[in-house]
Amino acid sequence: MMTGVHFPSLSRREALTRFGGGLGSIALASLMGRAAAAEGAPAAHLTARPKAKRIIYLFQSGGPSQLDLFDYKPRLSAEQGKELPEEVRMGQRLTGMSGNQASLPLVGSPFQFAQHGKSGQWFSELLPYTSMIADDITVVKSMFTEAINHGPGVTMMQTGAQIGGRPSIGSWLSYGLGSMNENLPAFVVLVTKGMKGQPLVSRLWGSGFLPGEHDGVRFNPDKDAVLYLNNPPGLDTTSRRRMLDRLEELHRIQLAKSGDSVLETRIAQYEMGFRMQSSIPEVTDFADEPDSTYQLYGEDARTPGTYAANCLMARRLAERGVQFIQLYHQDWDHHGGLPGGIKSKCRETDQASAALVTDLKQRGLLEDTLVIWGGEFGRTNYCQGKFNAANFGRDHHPRCFSMWMAGGGIKAGHSHGLTDDYGYNVAAGGVHVHDFHATILHLLGIDHERLTFQYQGRHFRLTDVHGHLVKEILA
Amino acid sequence: MKRFTCYLAICLAAVQAQAQKIEFNRDIRPILSDKCFACHGPDAKNAKSEYRLDTFDHATTAVDGVTGIVPGKLKDSEVHWRIHSDDASEVMPPPESKRSLNPAEIALLDRWIEQGAEYQKHWSFVPVPAEVPVPKVASDWVKNGIDAFVLTKLQEKGFSPSPETSREKWLRRVTFDLTGLPPTPTELDAFLADSNPDAYEKVVDRLLASEASAERLTAEWLDVARYSDSYGFQVDGDRFVWPWRDWVIRAFRENLPYDDFITWQLAGDLLPDATRDQKLATAFNRLHPQNVEGGSVPEEFRVEYVADRVHTYGTAFLGLTMECSRCHDHKYDPITAKDYYSLSAFFANIDEAGLYSYFTPAVPTPTLWLPDPKQEEELARISAEVAALEKDLASRITSAKSDYETWLAAQTTPATLPAPIAAHDFDELVGGGFPNLVAKGAAAKTNANNVLVAGRRGQAVKLTGDDAVTLGVGNFSRSDPFSVSLWMQTPDRKARAVVLSRSKAWTDAASRGYELLIEKGKLNAALVHYEPGNALRVQTKNEFPVGSWHHVALTYDGSSRAAGLRLYVDGEEAPIEIVRDKLTREITGGGSDTIVIGERMRDSGFKNGLVDDFRVYDRNLSGAAVKSLASDAATFTPDPHYFLTEHDAASRELRGRLLEKRKEQSALVEKIPEIMVMAELEGKARETHLLERGSYLTPAEVVAPATPAFLPSMPADAPKDRLGLAQWTVSAENPLPARVTVNRYWQRLFLNGLVATAEDFGSQGRLPTHPELLDWLARDFVNHGWDLRHLLKTIVLSATYRQSSNVASGELATIDPENTLLYRYPAPRLTAEMLRDNALAVSGLLVNQVGGPSVKPYDIEFAFKPSSPDKGPGLYRRSVYTYMRQTAPSPLMTTLNASKRDVCQVKIERTDSPLQGLVMLNAPQFAEAARVLAAKLVAQHGDDDAALVKDAFRRLTSRLPDDEERMVLSSLLAEQQTHFESRPGDAKALLAAGGSAPSQTTQPARVAAAATLVSTLLNFDESLSKR
Q: In sequence order, which residues have a C-beta less than 8 Å from that of residue B862 and are 6 or more positions away?
């Protein structure tokens, strides 16, 4: 219910009373944050016919090196070791990590690049599986942002602002679209277990100033997939069912006495919780997956909490109507030892990322599922620290980086945007983070300028006061 | 259906509008603000149109020959035509703004123009009237002023208030509201038995005087103050700030007048003879998130910290959305960007770094020391001893003059230089090292990038600026005298270059250690505990010559004073200016424990710099000795300093004792905790600039500290610092803080404030539902000396607060679903803190200990960044003490809608989600409470089902069950008991929930069944809410 848009400070409960009628279903809808459209109220932000019904966002935290994966720059190898020309850098700010270096030597990628598929997209040898889905994806090579450090950078990608406190993309979608499955959260977060690297923070999937029900729900690969999902030891389902039945009786008595519709919400709240106790284990239990699944995603997918297992989980959640599935994989922050480091990151992610796209396609889900792969910024064309062609590092680089997207209304087999020969600046078709956000909202049928929430007197948007639809990548 | 209802409401508003005179603040400003001001409002600079609608003068002035509003003349007013236009290129608001006016709004604007287009000053910017008359109402329902206002408004609409609630329910409400805990059965009995007329008042006085009340009020203030036990941002390390939280508890316990509560937090340090608590209170302005991420630009984050202080100040005290003016003039309120930065200048003038230290646990400056009484006494004693020794030494130095002359006359051979502890002539590179001329001394290590070139004498090392030359010595403390002597040549004028340092890193270690730099062409030396606020730093007045060899020496006397740090160039003491002179803590630590030449982590190295003949001494060299080093003379004529430090037994003995004593002092100081506070920068104030588009990269004009121009100005003689700001904030002329404060407390008790947008009293905020009541409360609050207890007492003793929470049926429910008329008590769900504390209290598990370090209950184990839960008492403390990590807060608390504490939050959030149900039913905190209470109930009532059910129900809801409820619960108990009787293993497991010893009982099945009964009741609405 989009009460926030029109009656910003109206609580859900009061909204229920205001709009009256069909309390049970509305109580349920309110708990699910179901979109206003479902209730027949005006929902001005829902404009276009959605191309995508859900998003799976494979976030690669730390800033993967576009120069060693997607953005082929032979000139860097040709000018290896030479100083970054000042006319390329143009006095732009660097981080404090390499900004005080006495020298900024260019470094080419040690990995082989080749063209793949009918579309002839370039990929390095580090991405053999992604190369095979070249004709299913759009690679955007001209992403850019302002942030030069991880905290602000990741926060920008996930919330549209560098400083915390704003809602994440998934929260905006939960708020704007509601949930399609009353037994599962609308916004699920899966973080690869046991990763090192730059820390993530829970605010990245937080609802900011939106109501707390739009927080992302993190599925934990350990015992309780969701916080305290399981009954305490000694309490079985029978016992719990009877407790809830009696609780409902108490609430019905109270409802009759007080006339307060919040009691309807209470009843629905506990019933949904009870159903989640079975629907969540059902989705997290892979017992019904055939061996062919693991051939596709890789054997890693058998181990809960791995990136591959999370990709598979994402497909299972997508099948069950979860709208926004956010994966995080850490440790792409290769300031040093990049050749070895990036290899192991690709080993962890390449097969499963491609498998997810292939799997969704086979199941007919890709056409209305938007899959996104990318980090918070790119990496420099020069070497951080001492120059060593075999074992170098790259610093953070916000001025250009690459991402790929697939399905859900995105062109298949397409490459968008260009960077200069040094891979330092965007040369054509720049896509700012706000443009990226505007575009993904558009694919879900949302006008990014109309999906607003009034907070502190302002009508806040995911895209602040910016954002242009990137029409060139729409199918 | 909903569309229809909305339409109905709009029509109704339109009809009402026709019936009464249009009032600008009530009817028109909300429309103009939301739909028009973005382009035709106060932010003239960035507006797309020259035409403004925010003041009468602007609105009625012709622009290009067209007049927007001609008062009383609709047809002559361009605004009228534009809002009615069908032409997409003409209509206002334009389609691309994605705002539109509905027919009722258009009708209102028309009528307003017809009636003369009168403007009013925004309601909250008008001073609180000196007297607010209470409406005369003849009704015995009225208990105090509040009720007269509420009843008048209800009667105007033709309604009456709800009946009074039961005594039990009132006691439950007021106990939770004032203490955050449920009433005990004993308290219930006592109140029910007290038929005296002052029974209610006695309860309120008892509650307000309790420690629990101070804790409850503190929990609320922590949300406003964005309190957390960690620094936030990405790395989010732990920080030591809980003593500030304990001060808040003390302040509420002592009922510190609220204007003082505000003043101390803003400027306690600037009060005359400020006490420790007054200084401690200012930690309020340091509780914002702070960053340490490597490679970040410090200035970017320093600016962010100052901005957070401005936003928090604006929200907490003025109810204004200052952040909107950070990048441009406010779009809705008359706050300019200049106002914003002028206000920020008050908060910027402290000696702080933009990043805290990653490699050392140092507390970001400025700080306040918090010694315990024993430490305080010891520190005073040792400091006095140090001072006495320093005095003795000084007098020995004076008196030694004749001894020196006698001694000098007796010398037959010239003096020789003291032996260095390391000496490198950089004449050869052997196995990756520069040999040490000191016997058995370690070579200075380097990689192959630093090369040998022709030196001043023999060879010298040429530095790349990215590669270190690492010595084997140099880990001096701030009490150790030491000296460094070298020859150096810089190829160019360096903006910044590290010549040498004993320091792990620059910003990443807050420069901990000592260093010799070239800064803007000048030599610059420092001893640093935490840059910039705890350091000695001196800089030469002259620039260091470029392109030639010069001898440089740094000498230090171990005094922790800038006067003890000298720089010599070519044997002469260089004229210097003192940049910082406040070193009070140790300079060792952080890693990289020896001298490194030419490079430092993430700092600018000495690129292409040359260094030759490098010597390190474990003593404070005399000027004569330095001169001889600079002139390559092995011998020299001793000066008095040389005599005193090398030969005079009396002063050598005093120096030895002084060194010991200073080390003792330093060791003690290391143990004294310190906390971040506010303290004015010494000397010249920091310049604050207006930042274009809010970015630190685009500083514009310099602004002086000033309060927003549209509000009453500061008195001319008021200090232009935080104290002046604090005095202005709580002054009688300021229309906002008293209103904002009473509204926030009203909101805490009634869920919604009289102004529903507690965070925004500006143009975009909601209008007060009872403006006169708000003003009456604000005036009464101020007249009673900002007495918070008086305010709370007035509210909870009102008849308004005593109403039943039942929802009205019929017309009232349709007209007022939001209860804006206050026709009933709103029955808010308990806060996260109350829900958890309630379970602890009713089960008797609550550990009532006031204050101290934060604790980690069970669920911290499931936080996004988990840590081990406490064992024992830490599991059972009140939730105000729960460890709050910004990037991974307690998942239990946040699921139950606790504030996330990353920004100032004054608005209460209550949502209902299935995940809350799971937490309330399954979390060990609640499961344990349920089984512990169950065991008590069974022990007390045995097999008496009726008594057990009755007692359990009363403990959880503060009332007795009715027959229907009793039947439901008796059935529950019976069926669960049968269930557990056939599953003894399950019963045993359930009775072991949580960390306390499993419940001992001879009837495990019955206790388990009673535990499910308690658990059910913990989730019953009347236990979850204040009914």
A: A220, A224, A227, A228, B891
